[in-house]
Amino acid sequence: MPTLVRPAMSHMASFVGAMLEGYSRDTLRPETPEGIDQIAKNPEWFLRQLNDPPTTIVLPDGTLGPRVAETRLWYVEGDLFIGDIAVRHSLSPMLEQWGGHIGYAVRPSGWGQGHATVMLAGMLDHVRKNLPLERVTLTANVKNAASIRVIEKNGGILEGEIPHPWVEGDFGYRYWIEL
Ligand SMILES: CC(C)(COP(=O)(O)OP(=O)(O)OC[C@H]1O[C@@H](n2cnc3c(N)ncnc32)[C@H](O)[C@@H]1OP(=O)(O)O)[C@@H](O)C(=O)NCCC(=O)NCCS
Predict the structure, then answer these.
(1) FRET pair for 137, CA 20 to 30 Å: which of 81, 86, 149, 171?
(2) Ligand 1 centroid, distance to 41 Cα (angstroms)
(3) How many domains does the chain divide into?
(4) Four-CA torsion 155, 159, 163, 165, nearest 10 degrees
(5) Is 163 part of any domain?
């Protein structure tokens, strides 16, 4: 049975395979062949910055801002990488607008098998046990029917529709899940 674990070297070959089949770390942008190649050649470096990320982040407007603390887990079965889910411990002004506390993605070959639903349920349990949050917010693009279902199946209550801050003409739904 798949489980949520800290990303480890044993999953790296499968993670690279996931990117080659179309998994992307960014919902707005596909991975590039150069980016995949860099990770494939430097898996230790990649894992280090994944598990111990820098304290700053490049914001969508190109400026540097503080990065909020996060816990990132991978959904794996043995060495097989299935998906990624991260919870931010607090919200920056940017995450308040879009993104919220929790973000996730499943590799394309794993879609439609209930993985994201179970991953989010597992992460909510993790948050209940480990973080002082009473509720979490999540956003999903209005066109992302699968993600909307995943959130609603995990008790997401719709707050309303919000404009995408960086993609003109795009809209999302903001949800809250009580913990
Ligand atoms: C969104 C995503 C995480 C869903 O992962 P998944 O493992 O396929 O999701 P699940 O199998 O748990 O499916 C959840 C629900 O969505 C439904 N669903 C799946 N694909 C769908 C689609 N294209 N249209 C409508 N519903 C869909 C499923 O039927 C299921 O509902 P059900 O249980 O009522 O049948 C996955 O598509 C993905 O990684 N996409 C790219 C990254 C992304 O969009 N992340 C979310 C950002 S908010």
Answers:
(1) 81
(2) 31
(3) 1
(4) -70
(5) no
pLDDT at residue 60 tops 80: no
Q: How far is the CA of 36 from the centre of ligand 1 (A)?
A: 24
Residue 77: give the domain boundaries: 3-131
The pTM score is 0.95
CATH of the domain at 120: 3.40.630
Please name the helix (run of DSSP H) or strand (run of DSSP E) that holds residue 94, with its range, or none: helix 93-97
What is the identity of the amino acid at 6? Answer: R
User: Would you say 50 and 36 are in contact if contact means Cβ atoms under 8 Å apart?
Assistant: no
Torsion over CA: 87, 89, 91, 96 (sign)? positive
Q: Please tell me the predicted confidence (pLDDT) of residue 86.
A: 98
| Upper half-sphere CA count for residue 17 (Cβ side, 13 Å) | 12
Cα 161 from Cα 32, distance rounded (Å): 31
Nearest CA to ligand 1 atom 17: 146
Ligand 1 contact via 73 beta carbon (within 6 Å): no
